Amino acid sequence: MKKIFFLVGLLFLSTSIVFAADDLIDVGIAKYAVLEAKKDYAPIRISPSENAQRFSHIRRGFVLYADKQNDNFYRIDLGEDKPFWIEKKYADVQAVINEKRIQKIDKIEFDEDKESYKIFIPLYIQNAYSFKEVPDGLEFNLYDVDYRNIEIKNKRGNFNIIPVKKSVLTLKYIAPALFGYDVLPHKDGLVLQIKKIPKINKKKPLKGIKAVVDPGHGGEEKGVCAFGVEEKDVNLKISKQISKALKKRGAKVYMTRKRDKYVSLHDRVLFAQEKKADILLSIHQNSLPDPKDVVNRHGVGMYYYNKQAYALASQLQTQLLKQTGFRNDGINFASFALTRPTNPVSVLVECGYLIDQNEKEKLTNKKFQKEFAKALTTGVENYLRYLVVF
Ligand SMILES: [Zn+2]
Fold first, then answer.
1. What local confidence, expressed as pLDDT, does residue 291 receive?
2. 174 C-alpha to center of ligand 1: Å?
3. Separation of 320 CA from ligand 1 center, angstroms?
4. Judging by beta carbons within 10 Å of its beta carbon (0-12, 13-18, 19+), is residue 343 exposed, middle or buried?
5. Pairing state of beta strands 279-286 and 345-353?
6. What is the structure's pLDDT at 23?
7. How far apart are the CA of 354 and the centre of ligand 1, in A?
8. Among 2.30.30.40, 3.40.50.970, 2.60.120.10, 2.60.40.420, what is the CATH number of 22-97?
9. 349 CA distance to ligand 1 centroid (A)?
10. Candidates 3.30.200.120, 3.30.160.270, 3.40.630.40, 3.30.70.20; correct CATH number of 210-388?
11. How many A from CA of 36 to the centre of ligand 1?
């Protein structure tokens, strides 16, 4: 019996592999389907799985070219060495065509204000783009363009066009540290916005800084429940203390919720962007699927996605370890809705584990919450001081 099952299993395995490879079909009667993104920041992934690593994202209304498809994904040709993928639910087919519409870019125009560089790129179709944080700055790639006759107007800051690929405009921003960047849709193209390192007062680094504090969960979404405590309530209490401490030291602070209500992840990010925040701190309490594991795994931990946020995460972790005496649960890379934004600089803080009785006692104690908030605020100040060294 066992042998038969094994054989049947093997058969399934081999057919499914063959099937997966054969699964791709053409996009229609022409070579390319023109796709328009219907969700803002829709993920572009490195393989056709919803859990696959993200390569980039695309803003709503922007365009991609697909050359193949399977049941759930379009295969995207960005003119790179390998293909990328977008889930069908995030894109509408606008047309099928045999040649990509390569756009001629004849100029890019620089502008700046106190806070950021703004680079306008005129386009009649808003094409796919990607960012790459490199050790000496940031690379911005714009796909499916012809920039042979490009003129650079009012150049500011330390930017260079790097000729890497013929159909990809690579604009490099050279900087020792990054403080937020994004692409803003514009009716005649797009604007690449890159924030400058703020000029700060070393004694009062938070003066003029805008922070969004995001108490995780809320309403029917309770988060972790342990020892009769709900995470959403602890998050809110600690967030209010953090907000107070940041304000006291000069920051302008906004909270994504001030009471017990449900707020979607998308709305939290949108709120932070609308407020033009410099930093975004999402406040959570941790847990584990099996409470027995808490013997080994507990303590305070940071989560970041973009490299630029690592410095903030690291300064927060140093201060919070010192203040709490909790175990070091690490500075962890994680793709969360609240860690992915490239602007503001975003970190998710897991204050401790509510399923650890000792940590739960402390995290629900008002005096401890105040001290925690103060230590976190010192961490933000040290991060700003560290930035200004550059
Ligand atoms: Zn949580």
1. 76
2. 36
3. 18
4. buried
5. parallel
6. 83
7. 10
8. 2.30.30.40
9. 9
10. 3.40.630.40
11. 33
Q: Which residues of the chain have pLDDT under 50?
A: 1-19, 21
Q: Give the distance (Å) from ligand 1 centre to CA of residue 284.
A: 4
Tokens matching residue 180: 């937020």
- 61 CA from centroid of ligand 1 (Å): 32
Q: What is the pTM of this model?
A: 0.91
What residue type is 382 in one-letter code?
N
For ligand 1, the distance from its centroid to the CA atom of residue 194, given in whole angstroms, is 30
Structural tokens at position 145: 């363009």
Location of each CATH 3.40.630.40 domain in the chain:
210-388
Q: Parallel, antiparallel, or unpaired: how do β-strands 328-333 and 300-304 relate?
A: parallel
User: For the chain, first and last CA: distance in Å?
Assistant: 69
Question: What per-residue confidence (pLDDT) applies to 9?
Answer: 45
Per residue in 204-218, pLDDT (tens digit) is 999 999 999 999 999
pLDDT in tens, 158-199: 999 998 889 999 999 999 999 999 999 999 999 999 999 998
